[in-house]
Fold this sequence. Notes:
The structure holds two protein chains of two kinds. Helices cover about 75% and strands about 0% of the residues of chain A.
Amino acid sequence: MITLADQLLVLVLLINFILLGTSRQIFSIRAVAVQGVILGILPGLIHPFSWHLVGITIVIIAVKGFVIPQLLGRAVRSAEINREVEPFLGFVPTLLLGAIFTAISFSFAGRLPMLPEHQNYMFVPASIATLMAGFLILTTRRKAISQVIGYLVLENGIFIFGLLLAEAMPIMVEAGALLDLLVGTFVMGIVINQISREFSSLDTSLLTSLKEE
Amino acid sequence: MYSFLQGAFDPALVALSAALVIGCAGIPGLFLRKPGPGQILSTVATILAALAGVPASLMLLFSHSTTTYSLEWGLPFGPCELVIDPLSAFFLLPVYLVSAAGSLFAVGYWPAAEHRATERGLTFFYGLLASSMAILLMARNGVFFIMVWEVMALSAYFLLVTEHEREEVRRAGIVYLIATHTGTAALFVYFSLLAAQTGSFMLPAAGSLSALSPYAAIIALAAFIGFGAKAGIMPLHVWLPSAHANAPSHVSAVMSGVMLKMGLYGIFRTLTYFNDPPLLWGAVLTICGITSALLGIAFAVAQRDLKRLLACSSIENIGIITTGLGVAMLGVSSHNSVLVYLGMAGALLHILNHSFFKPLLFLGSGAIIHASGTREMNLMGGLGKGMPRVALLFMVGSVAICGIPPLNGFVSEFLLYLGFFRQLKAHSLIYLVFLAPLLALVGGLAVVAFTKLYSSVFLGSPRSAAAAHPHEAGVTMLVPMAFFALLCLLIGVAPQVALRLVSPAISSFYPQLASAAVSAEYGSILGRLSLAGVLLLTAAALVTLLWRWRLGRSSVASAPTWGCGYQRGTARIQYGATSFSELAVSVFNGIMRQRIERPALTGLFPGAARCSDVPTETLLERIIAPLFTLAGVSFAFLRRLQHGLMHVYMMYIFATLFILMLWAN
């Protein structure tokens, strides 16, 4: 089962690269949704069966795979912005940076003092690489929707790390993480609305005009 | 009976639940649509809680066993214990008394019907402030202590900025916020060092630390800065006058009467940790204390804003308390147990006294402001005719705060004087005698300040149209004031009872003290004082009766005060508040200036002219304000980091993370 989990993690990493390399917003949202569904499956693969686990899996898949992408899709359609044009850093350099960061995170994870049973698996490097990808998206993209996507990817990275931490994750932690995600998306949704109403654009670099003098 | 009661319920639990009830009292009001019931409900709950909390604290004060409650908080800072020992129980008394009285006062002073927008928040944060102070006294875990401390500091901030539409109030709020967080920063250092010393975040037991270790001095200094900033000891007092002046009056009463004492509690608590404090600590406390007392009252004399005057006098009283504590510490270091006893008894009793007469005066100032619509003493006058009850109660508070017998302020200062004069015959620390004339000077200046206040507010004729038609305060405002006046009188005529309240707290502070003999000795001295007080009261009553009788027999004509037979005299010819204190303030010209801008009068019939007076505080304006400007200029480059580009903010986080990763590699 663990090898299957590792293969799924490779898929997660590939999705990171898709997200870093694409400019189409709808496509990015779908990719994040797929990533969310994969993450929803992962706990079932590494922990023994329990009804509790089934419940968590269903909730995670529903939230990450359907609810949040739906919300984002609606935001994109209503704002009528389909593409990320003129990012701060071009797509090719971003992809290259993503590759470098992934390599670094693998080398970093190798040096971490981990339990022997975790040593041979990809959880930690995949988690750090996803986190880095999220950060890259957050820092290089201009549009508010891309920022939300970056935030979701960041959260996914943290989630992968959380898979390791506890044998059976306490329900409070899961609930907290999911709630965090939902609230974050809501807040971002509000921010998107406000930005597009104030500036009739979704360019977050225009926020500098709010700066206090 | 006593043991039966103790078996039936645990007073510590009662005190704790009373604190929680007070904290939650304002919550229902937040959700009620109609203004009014929420405030009444909160007042009733607060008063009931205080009625339970005060006897419980008294029982805890005299009981020899302490109960420990442990909070399951799931944070990695060790167990979170709540304990009420006699020292905490002593400080709990004013918390319950003042918060309940202030809550009743608010019903008349800040009625929900007139202040729809602000009343809910005010009631809620008021309860939160009182409750956090009570729980602070019970907290024995450093991290929990800081959390409750912050709840207290922030709820006081929200209370202070109730009238935030006024620029002056917002400014006072910012100054308070900066001052309190500077103090909190020092407390972080304090608790971290304590934890490093003891190995856990639990506050150390009494006498368990040695003052000789290198960290002890830093711990004491951090405590002095952190707690002293809250208490308003002299170099750290800058926030105090404007904060107290701009808060609603019942909030000022709680802030001055109780919240300042939380800072003092912190200092008291810290000093209990050490078993062999050096002489230096006592000396520093004494010097800072007497300086605060002297300068505080000098500032008070110069003020023309009623509440600012009261606030500055709080600095003075805190100074007196700190002096007492410093003298007691000198006694501890020199193993002079009578000096310890007198210093501690004076300090603790003054804490209790100040938390009675200062709220009385602040509530009185609330009633005055309510009636005259201004805080400017130069615009008041003659209010005593319209509000005789408030005037009488205010008089009681003023006499008490000046330390004049037979009221309570005298008792605590008397104990301090006894301590100073005892040093005349002692072999060491003889120079403490010089504190006696200084304290007398403070008392004299207090008389000047409060004569100025009372005469310009209540006597004479009204100096403005607003003060011309004052109305007497309502029952809900008079009852709390009368309650405090009664307490002041009670302690004044029965000081030996008050001394018994203080004794357990002293012995928990300095257990080595063979206090039975010493306290019996001074109890009997205070007993004689009590007799003198009763005689004085009787004499005063007799004179009043005689005066009334004489007045009734002869015909009475009424004329304007200071009329002096002039035909065209106006009310502005009277001695104003500023002119009254001009001479006294000129003595302190270097540190306190009453800048009077007056036009040069020329010719026989000079035209209309204006004269204005601005009391300036040199420390704040010449030293602290320029320091802040300097800091603002020298750190201006940091503002460039805040440019509004969200991506670059993200980049900061990312870069930090990345550097940490590489570093760990």
